[in-house]
Amino acid sequence: MKINFEKYQGTGNDFVILDNRKKEYRSLTASHIRHICDRRFGVGCDGLMLLGEKDGFDFEMKYHNADGREASMCGNGGRCLAKFAYALGIHKNVYHFLAADGLHEAEIDTDGTVSLKMQDVNHISKFHGDFLLNTGSPHYVKMVNDVMNVDVFKKGRDVRYSKEFEQEGINVNFVEQLPDEDKILVRTYERGVEDETWSCGTGVTAAALICYHNENGFNDVEVKTLGGTLTVEFDRIDDNHYNNIWLSGPAEKIFEGSIEL
Questions:
Q1: How many Å separate Cα 31 from the centre of its chain?
Q2: What are the catalytic residues?
Q3: DSSP assignment of 183-249
Q4: pTM assigned to the model
Q5: Mean pLDDT in residue range 21-50
Q6: Span 217-224, mean pLDDT?
Q7: CATH label of the domain that carries residue 130
Q8: Do 51 and 59 contact (CB within 8 A), yes or no?
Q9: Could you report how far apart the first and last alpha carbons of the chain are, in Å?
Q10: N or C: which end of the chain has fewer CB within 10 A?
Q11: Same domain, yes or no, for 132 and 237?
Q12: Could you tell me the pLDDT band of residue 87, with boundaries at 50, 70 and 90?
């Protein structure tokens, strides 16, 4: 099988994307996807996405982690997929697409910035002093003083494979509040990749909600990651209710090619 692909990245979170509107990639298996995502023997990426047609929507997003399994929502992936849709000739002022966690909207600014509307968050719980919430994917958020000196792989893996989270898996975010109250630095261990990634859109969103600077109402948090800077805007209603959540940042095509499977 010959696979024609394009590769995109959003703040270093990289994806292989396939145009599956003609359903030509229905026979892709988890093994195929693992091979494509492998950084030594395949193309190399954090995940693989397929853009498909869906009645009532501009397109449908199917996302697979690097381990080959179909996964929950990927924020940076959704932003990259909107840019891919535009390149395919699907031009909209506001995109409406269906992902694993439901309907999303996306907008592309004239400077190339892509903004993605995330699902509302209606529950945040405490766990041994840290935070648990779902922003389309499940996240564990831990505040730290010096995030660049944290062993993210080891500490993240310890949480992800602890007895509480081993079965379903969880993404683990280490977050440092910077001197400016509206700026944070985030590093993330991602399930499915089973390693630290350079950026995680749903993780950045989770961290920003935890690090609100306005008690209620509009918040705008700048989030620095290893791969670049994202912004998260949202309305905070109270401790457990956040809506109008938008994740914004760059999304760029890296290259295109083909691979034989």
A1: 22
A2: 74, 200
A3: EEEEEEEETTTTEEES--HHHHHHHHHHT-SSSSEEEEEEEEETTEEEEEEEEEEETTEEEEEEEEE
A4: 0.97
A5: 97
A6: 98
A7: 3.10.310.10
A8: yes
A9: 5
A10: N
A11: yes
A12: very high
